[in-house]
Amino acid sequence: MGYPHKSHPRETPILSKHFGDPDARTLEGWKARGGYKALQQALHMEPTAIQDILKASGLRGRGGAGFPTGLKWSFMKLGDGKQHYLCCNADESEPGTFKDREIMRWTPHALIEGVAVGAHAIGADTAYIYIRGEFTEPIRVMEQALAEARAAGIIGNNAMGSGKKVDVWVHKGAGAYICGEETALMNSLEGKRGNPRIKPPFPAVSGLFGKPTTINNVETLAAVPHILNNGAEWYKAMCLSSPKSTGSKLFSVCGNVQRPGNYEVVMGFSFKEFLYDLCGGPLPGRKFKALIPGGSSVPTITIEEAEQVKMDYEGFLEFGTMLGSGGVIIFDDAQSMPRQLARLARFYAHESCAQCTQCREGTAWMTKILERIVAGQGTFEDLDTIFELSESMTGKTICVLSDSCGAPVVSGIKKFRGEFEALIKGKRSSTVAVGA
Amino acid sequence: MSHGPSAPAQGHGHTHGHHEAYEPVFTPGSARLKELQDVIARYPEKMAALLPALWMVQQERGWISPEAMTEVAAQLGLTAAYVKGVVTFYTMYHQHPVGKHFIQVCTTSPCLCAGADKVVDAFLEHTGCKELGLTSPDGKYTVIEVECLGACGFATPVQINEDYVENVTPEKVPEILSSLK
After folding, report:
1. Which residue numbers of B have CB closer than 8 Å to A's CBs?
2. pLDDT along chain B (181 residues), means of 10
3. Which residues of A are less than 8 Å from B163 in CB distance?
4. Which residues pair with B143 in a beta bridge?
5. Most buried residue among A39, A349, A403, B82 by CB atoms closer than 10 A?
6. In this structure, is residue B144 part of a structural domain?
7. Is A7 a domain residue?
8. pLDDT for A80-98, tens place per residue?
9. Is the torsion defined by CA of B139, B143, B148, B153 positive or negative?
C-alpha cells in the first residue's frame, strides 16, 4: 500500500495491507485479520522445520545485507544448553528509509508474531525489539500491543498454551545511527556505548550478553507469519526477475517526487514503472536526475541507469548499486549533487562512533573537502583526494559506516563530475543556484 | 546554509533546575524505583537497564546532570564515570537543561531536498533562539538540527519533545509554535 497514499493496483500489499487502518493495531482486530495463526502452528513445530520452510521460501534479510534468513537461523546451535536470544533491529535510521516505522505504527502484532516465531525457531525464550529513541509513537504502539499480547497469554511463560516460554520486550535507543549495526545494537542493549564489535566471533556464537544471538530486521520478521500461513512455494513464486530474490518488498520513496511514501511490490519489479507510475514521476516541470536507491549507504545512479533496473538484489547490483534497505532517495534536476552529497557526508561524520581512525578522520575530512567545493573554494586535486580517501575508508574498519560514506559520494562524483567541476571553476551551474 | 548543522544543545540561557539541589528520582518506595526494578528483571545483567534508567531520569528532570549520573550509577552498580561515557555517546540525552519545547528539525539529504534548511531558519526566527542549540531568552524553546528522523516520506519532519510533526514548511512554523502549550 502506498501509504500515505491509496494502494496502487500494481502493488502487492502483504506487509502493508493494513497500513492506515487503526483497527489492525488491536489484538482483536489483528486476530480478525488472521493474526497469530502462524504462531499457534509454529509453537508446535520443530525449530528446524520452521528454518527449512524459511530456507525454501528464499526470504532474505530486509535490513540491507540481504542474507538468507533461514540460513542465518540455522547457525544457531539448538540444544547446546545455552541461553539464546533474538534481537529485532528496529533502529531504522538509514536516510531514505521509513518502512519499519510504518510496520510498527500500524501492524504491531504482525511484528510481535514474527518475533515470537523467530525466537522459537532459533531456540530463544527471550527476544528484544531495539527501537530507535526518536520513534516515540512506534514505541508507544508496540508497548501497548505487547501488553495486550502478554495479558492474553500469547507471549509469556506459556505462549499460547504451548508450555513454551517466549518473552518479548521493547528496548528504547537514545539517538545513534550506528546502533543499527548489529554488534553495536547488542552493545547498546547491554548498556554500553554503541561501538561495533570486531567479528568473529559472530553473534550466533557469542552475541548479546555473550550468548548465541540472531539479529533480524523488522520487515524480515514481519514477513515470517505470512510465509508460514501460505507456504514457502507461495512466497518463492513472488519473483519477476532473479530467482535469488523472492517475495514482496517495501520500498520507501522520498526526495523530489510526486508521491513519496511506502510501496510494496514483488521482487524484480520494473524500476521505471515504479518511479513514473506508482510514485507519480517528477514534480511539475522537473526531471529526475539521480537516485540513491537502497538507503543513503549505496552508490548513486543516474536516472538513465535507474530506468533499466529490475528491483531486486541482483538487479540493483547489475548497475553498480544495491537494493540495501529499499529506501529510494530521488534528486531532480533542480538539486545540486555536490551540495546533497556534502550533506550526506556530514551525516556519516556525525554518526561515526570514532573507534576506527579511517572512519573518524575520513568521514570528517571528506565532509570538509566537499563543503569547501560547494563553497566555491575547491580544487581539481580535491576530487582526486576524495577518491584516494575513499579507498582508505573502504574495507579497513570494524564496521561499514566508513565504506558507506564513500559509496554514494565517489559514484556521485564520477557520474556528475561536471557539477563539481563547474563549482571548482567558479561557474555557478544552473542547478546550484536553486536552493543553495 | 548560514548556520552549522547538527549543533548539539549548548545549554545557554538555563531556565530551570540545575542550580537547585539535585532531587533523587529513584527514592525508596517511589513508582520510578519500582519501574526500574521491573525493567532490570527483563535482562540477565543489571547494566542493560542503563539506557532505560537514563530515560526515566530525563523524563523526570528534563536533563541528565552529573548528580543524576551518580544516582543512576549507584542504582546499577556502575561508576559515575562509566555512566557519563554512555550518556555522552547518545545524542538524545541532554547534558544541559533545554527549553520547554525541544525542537529538532531533520536536515539530512532527503529533507534538504524538501527545503529543510528554510524550516530551520523559520524556527530560529519565530522562537527567538539566536542560534542552533541555544535556548530562547524566555526559556521556552531550543532548536537543533537532527540527523535523519526516519520519516523521509513526510519531509520535513520535526520532532518537538516526544512528538513528530510531519510535512513542515516554513509557512506552517508560526501555527505550530502557537499550538504548543
Report:
1. 5-6, 42-45, 47-52, 54-55, 76, 85-86, 89-93, 107-110, 112-115, 117, 146-155, 159, 162-164
2. 44 50 96 98 98 98 97 98 98 97 97 96 95 95 97 96 96 97 80
3. 136-137
4. B103
5. A39
6. yes
7. no
8. 999 999 999 999 999 999 9
9. positive
Q: Is the ipTM of this complex over 0.85?
A: yes
CA distance readout (Å), A342 to A13, A45, A433, B109? 36, 51, 16, 9
**Together in a domain, B131 and B77:** no
Check which CATH number belongs to the domain holding A40 and give it. Answer: 3.40.50.11540
Q: Are A247 and A57 in contact (CB under 8 A)?
A: yes
Closest CA of chain A from B48, distance in Å: 4
Q: What is the number of domains present in chain A?
A: 3
Domain, as residue range, for B81: 31-87
Q: Same domain, yes or no, for A254 and A218?
A: no
CB A160 within 8 Å of CB A182: no
DSSP notation for A105-140: HH-HHHHHHHHHHHHHHTT-SEEEEEE-TT-HHHHH
Kind and range of the H or E element at A254? strand A248-255
Q: How many domains does chain B have?
A: 2
B136 shares a domain with B70: no
Query: Does the model's pTM come out above 0.80?
Result: yes
- Considering the domain architecture, whether residues B83 and B105 belong to the same structural domain is answered as no
pLDDT for the residue numbered B19 = 55
Closest approach of chain B CAs to the CA of A232, in angstroms? 31
Same domain, B113 and B155: yes
Judged by DSSP in three states, A81 sits in coil
**Residue position matching grid coordinates 568521514:** A363
**Domain co-membership, A255 together with A222:** no
